[in-house]
Amino acid sequence: MVDYDNLVDDPCEVMNQVYNFIGKEQPEQNFEVIESTESEGNHGLTGLHTLRKELVRSGDNAEDILTEDEFIKFSDWDFWPIQSDV
After folding, report:
1. Range of the domain at 7
2. N or C: less crowded end of the chain, CB within 10 Å?
3. Residue 41 lies in a domain
């Protein structure tokens, strides 16, 4: 699994590990300028995501985005660490 913090902190290294894992050569990538399109718009579903042109922390809090039931469900998954303010 790819950890969000690791991806944002060191995208080149994380993507290098992903390509090594799948056995493919990593293409040249620029993580400072990202071209993005919201393909959901092709199906009449627009505005589901905030697309950014650079790889930066969103500042979004999962508890603010998900319903309480969704947050509780996904909090039990190992890949979703709960952040502590301590």
Report:
1. 1-35+53-80
2. C
3. no
Measured CA angle at 37 (ends 32, 42), to 5 deg = 170
Q: What is the pLDDT of residues 56-71, one digit of tens each?
A: 888 888 888 888 888 8
The CA angle 41-9-78, to the nearest 5 degrees, is 75
**Between the CA of residue 16 and those of 8, 27, 52, 65, 72, what are the distances in Å?**
14, 9, 22, 30, 33
Predicted confidence (pLDDT) per residue in 29-43, tens digit: 888 888 877 777 777
DSSP secondary structure letter of residue 79 = T
Establish if 47 belongs to a structural domain.
no
Task: Give residue 73's Cα distance to chain centre.
Answer: 19
For residue 74, give both structure tokens. Answer: 């996904």
Sign of CA pseudo-dihedral 18, 71, 38, 34: negative
Residue in the structure block whose two tokens are 């993580």: 31
Answer whether residue 24 is part of any domain: yes
